[in-house]
DNA sequence: GTCTATATGTAGATAGAC
DNA sequence: GTCTATCTACATATAGAC
């Protein structure tokens, strides 16, 4: 692909991220994306064929951009992964736009026949697997933990990051995304290693 | 309001919850809601005036339905609130429809000028306040904890419940909503009372 | 209170000129 | 590669008959 075309592609993708983040993928229109990219909606369709295809490329684009940002620095495994997730939360607190695209599109994806659904199913499956692997390494060092607990903890760590993003987007001054994510991840990791008292015990 | 009219209202609201849950509030149409309620879209508008107003009444309806379900049994304060949240997670695992409406609409609400946004801002503010109050009672019994930690923990508990719902909706067999919620809430509550080691200490 | 008919707006996609 | 023009489809909302 020619460099000029490649730049146009990138510009359209950036515009699409912006618009899908602001309006959602259903409400965001090709015309608005085109305007931000400096062309008409017909031009956008020339590059991406259809709105659905553009959406899928937006989702793939961020993964690619994330990897590029890490340079050849691969995502760490083992206990370092937890620190990496906390660093991600700190980074996300500086880029509400990207956070909003993912929050809106991931929730939209559970609706009927949404084109982004396979992407998010796969994404969460992979991420949960990574976190489970990190827990296995950690527990191997420090003791034995049931498989159900590790599965629950892995899902919970991703969940708390997503859920805090939603509250933070709604009211940025009321939620400290970075600090709350760090506290929650730490609490869940510690909860796996040292179960602690049951909730019931706190009542009377 | 006459009883027959009231029943029609309820029937339309049920249909709207169903459709907004399946398609989102943007993609869900008045025609589909009307069909499920046994009338035409003009009939729906006769009852609710506009689609936007219907959406807002759907959001209010669930709160009202939740309260009715609890009978005159008010939402508990203090440490019992944590057990109540766990019970809610168990109940939610039996009603994917309701969970989906809230997951989809809450994320949609962060988009530009979404009519449901004030509702969700308010909802989270109130819920965080309830959880913070529960922590204060708990910490009063068991020791001193910083305000920032309590705020972070309150947001995190709501966040983990929401985030687990998303993963569970995407892949119900891969995530145990009830069990994972219980584990995460317990871990975060214990994290407030007994901080435990920092994440950094687990590396090397 | 519900219908049919219609007004009005806007979306995504296509065709063909330049 | 980008444009204008147009097609087709479908949405919300209104008007007025029954």
From TrEMBL, chains A, B:
SUPFAM superfamilies: Homeodomain-like (SSF46689), Tetracyclin repressor-like, C-terminal domain (SSF48498). The keyword Transcription applies. Residues 29-48 bind DNA. It comes from the Bacteria. Residues 6-66 form the HTH tetR-type domain. PANTHER family: HTH-TYPE TRANSCRIPTIONAL REGULATOR BETI, HTH-TYPE TRANSCRIPTIONAL REGULATOR RUTR. This is TetR/AcrR family transcriptional regulator. It comes from Microbacterium horticulturae.
